[in-house]
């Protein structure tokens, strides 16, 4: 795998994940209480012995830079690296990144110099575990110019993805980007040809692109030069390449989730708490997910009732009830609180308080969840200050709302309290 260069697409403004992307790039959004989204593709690369990794990003990249610099340091005797490449204006290219392909094109002058045979293009907002080495070996064995990783899916989500058809040799013959109605029906195929059982093929009659591509080095260079006005891989470059190049499909049968929306992000995090067998597990010794070492103390739990939940490092929990929730780093939850089906992302630092968790003066709401508060089906972003007897329960069952001045949004019925927000005592949301 020394002949492979990984390019991770950090995404644009992350509007689908807003307000979690209000202060950070999409790959820097927290995952499972202690990881970041970027840790998934980077860890997959490291576990596959791909050690040359670039991350392309454009918006709010400060926290992403900080995380990568502290998490991924290679020996001076290794040629491995994980490096962020932010959008920049130059005399030859005065505009910002205009799409996934355009982002790669603008740094192709650097990628061309790499002594590699293939580029693997990855996304920064998916949750999965994949052996890229097997993927690349299949690409080499087939002699393909481009290989797409694909997954079989059902009707419920099919119209949200790029769909395709393949021939008996796994060569991709037809593309359709996010089809609906009759156009969706046309893309239905017999996925038994990919190795699914008859029952599975009936449930999942579509072949969807995962947004993961392997290109021969020169093929990618030629395609980006040949179609200078095409700015997106999924919509433009990949369909165009099928006309003149051998574009193959690589079937991925494991767990894979696009977590680029608030609802998908929330559901994927809560699913991690499922017992005994969550769809995705971080407990895999042979393929660990790496992240930054923080050297925090173990969590302190005082007379709490906790069921099917994840508690991260450095937390202090007192006489509270927690069910099917993820509690992030350094979180304080006080007496008589009830947390249900929620993601509490945690805090960046500890505040100086007395042992009770209160400020000595009592004139400021501390970071964490105040005494007697109830939080259900919500996401509480970092450093939020939730006062006493607050109820975040979406009492009116509102599906969409923007209340930034009050410190929260509602997306798909999920209340999202923004980073650094202050929710006063007794507030009901």
TrEMBL record:
Q: Where is the signal peptide?
A: none
User: Could you tell me which PROSITE patterns the record lists for this protein?
Assistant: ADP_GLC_PYROPHOSPH_1, ADP_GLC_PYROPHOSPH_2, ADP_GLC_PYROPHOSPH_3
GO molecular function ontology, one term from the record = glucose-1-phosphate adenylyltransferase activity
Broadest EC class assigned to this enzyme? transferase
**Matching CDD domains:** ADP_Glucose_PP (cd02508), LbH_G1P_AT_C (cd04651)
Its Gene Ontology biological processes?
Answer: glycogen biosynthetic process
Q: Which GO terms describe its cellular component?
A: carboxysome
Describe the location of the Nucleotidyl transferase domain by residue ranges. Answer: 6-274
| Listed Pfam families | LbH_GLGC, NTP_transferase
Which superkingdom?
A: Bacteria
EC number(s) reported in the record: 2.7.7.27
Record keywords:
ATP-binding, Carbohydrate metabolism, Glycogen metabolism, Nucleotide-binding, Nucleotidyltransferase, Transferase
Similarity remark: Belongs to the bacterial/plant glucose-1-phosphate adenylyltransferase family.
**Record's protein name:** Glucose-1-phosphate adenylyltransferase
Organism, scientific name? Leptolyngbya foveolarum
């Amino acid at each position: 795998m020394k002949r492979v260069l990984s390019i991770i697409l950090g995404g644009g403004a992350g509007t689908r994940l807003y307000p979690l992307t209000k202060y950070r790039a999409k790959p820097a959004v927290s995952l499972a209480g202690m990881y970041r989204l970027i840790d998934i593709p980077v860890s997959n690369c490291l576990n596959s012995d791909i050690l040359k990794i670039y991350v392309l990003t454009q918006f709010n990249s400060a926290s992403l830079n900080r995380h990568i610099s502290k998490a991924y340091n290679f020996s001076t005797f290794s040629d491995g690296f994980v490096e962020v490449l932010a959008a920049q204006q130059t005399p030859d290219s005065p505009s910002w990144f205009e799409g996934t392909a355009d982002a790669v094109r603008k740094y192709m002058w650097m990628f061309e110099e790499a002594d590699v045979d293939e580029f693997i293009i990855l996304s920064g907002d998916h949750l999965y575990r994949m052996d890229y080495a097997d993927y690349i070996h299949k690409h080499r064995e087939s002699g393909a110019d481009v290989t797409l990783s694909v997954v079989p899916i059902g009707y419920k989500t099919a119209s949200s993805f790029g769909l395709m058809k393949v021939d008996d040799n796994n060569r991709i013959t037809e593309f359709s980007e996010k089809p609906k109605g009759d156009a969706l029906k046309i893309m239905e195929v017999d996925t038994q040809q990919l190795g699914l059982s008859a029952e599975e093929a009936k449930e999942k009659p579509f072949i969807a692109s995962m947004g993961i591509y392997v290109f021969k080095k020169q093929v990618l260079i030629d395609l980006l030069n040949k179609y200078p006005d095409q700015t997106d891989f999924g919509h433009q470059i990949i369909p165009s390449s099928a006309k003149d190049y051998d574009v193959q499909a690589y079937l991925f049968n494991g767990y894979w989730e696009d977590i680029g929306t608030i609802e998908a992000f929330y559901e994927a995090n809560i699913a991690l708490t499922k017992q005994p067998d969550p769809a995705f597990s971080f407990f895999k010794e042979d393929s660990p997910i790496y992240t930054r070492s923080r050297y925090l103390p173990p969590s302190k739990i005082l007379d709490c009732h906790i069921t099917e939940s994840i508690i991260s490092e450095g937390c202090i929990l007192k006489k509270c009830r927690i069910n099917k929730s993820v509690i992030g780093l350094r979180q304080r939850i006080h007496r008589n609180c009830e947390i249900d089906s929620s993601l509490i992302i945690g805090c960046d630092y500890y505040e100086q308080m007395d042992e009770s968790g209160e400020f000595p003066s009592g004139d400021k709401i501390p970071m964490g969840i105040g005494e007697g508060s109830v939080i259900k089906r919500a996401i509480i972003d970092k450093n939020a200050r939730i006062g006493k007897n607050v109820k975040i329960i979406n009492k009116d069952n509102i599906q969409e709302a923007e209340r930034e001045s009050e410190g929260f949004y509602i997306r798909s019925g999920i209340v999202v309290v923004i980073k650094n927000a202050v929710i006063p005592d007794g507030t009901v949301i």
